[in-house]
Design brief:
By secondary structure, the protein is of the alpha/beta class. Helix content is 39%, strand content 17%.
Length: 191
């Protein structure tokens, strides 16, 4: 059975930390492919458009043969909860493929308050959790923790918020995002 990883997020913008999360999950969980699934919209009024975020993802993963874009949430224009997206993704896979949802430890911790259905989504597919410095998983009930795989390697501590702040202050982001993404941001005056 082959495993397909889904890494969802706003990706505003996509950065080296997202790419590293995908590489860690691929290596530690033996995933065949990672699909990046951007959210339709972000709550911030100054967020990059869905089309800009999709293009930045395309640029960031262009040289990664086992990374691809999944535009399912974009296609629904945000009229779908993650719980429903997982069901749709599972239905699109063949019987010899397994769906793995990749997310940071903070997302698992916050699942009851931020996801429709809370921990019920853990029954829909395999969840791969990337540890994050300073994130305590003790509030996560033991029955929920038993349903996930916490990977051994933590990801890079990079924040899209910090990248946007740096762009706004005229500071370099060259080590935080792929060069093509930095050029796109500069060319289109994002953030």
């Amino acid at each position: 059975m082959t495993s397909i990883g889904i890494l969802g997020g706003t990706f505003d913008p996509i950065h080296q930390g997202h790419l590293e999360m995908a590489r860690i999950a691929m290596a530690e969980a033996g995933l065949r492919e990672i699909r990046f699934m951007p959210a339709w919209a972000h709550k911030r009024p100054d967020a990059a458009s869905a089309l800009d975020r999709v293009e930045m993802i395309r640029l960031a993963i262009a040289d990664e043969q086992r990374f691809s874009l999944c535009d399912l949430e974009i296609a629904t224009q945000g009229k779908c909860f993650t719980f429903d997206l997982i069901i749709r993704l599972r239905a699109s896979l063949s019987s010899d493929q397994r769906l793995c949802w990749i997310m940071g430890a903070d997302s698992l911790r916050d699942m009851p308050t931020r996801w429709t259905g809370g921990y019920a989504a853990l029954d829909l597919c395999q969840f791969l959790i990337i540890p994050r410095a300073g994130v305590d998983l003790s509030p996560v009930p033991p029955e929920a923790r038993r349903k996930v795989s916490v990977l051994q390697t933590s990801g890079m501590d990079i924040s899209s918020t910090e990248i946007r702040r740096r762009v706004g202050a005229g500071e370099s982001i060259d080590t935080l995002v792929p060069l093509a993404v930095a050029c796109y941001i500069a060319t289109y005056g994002l953030y």
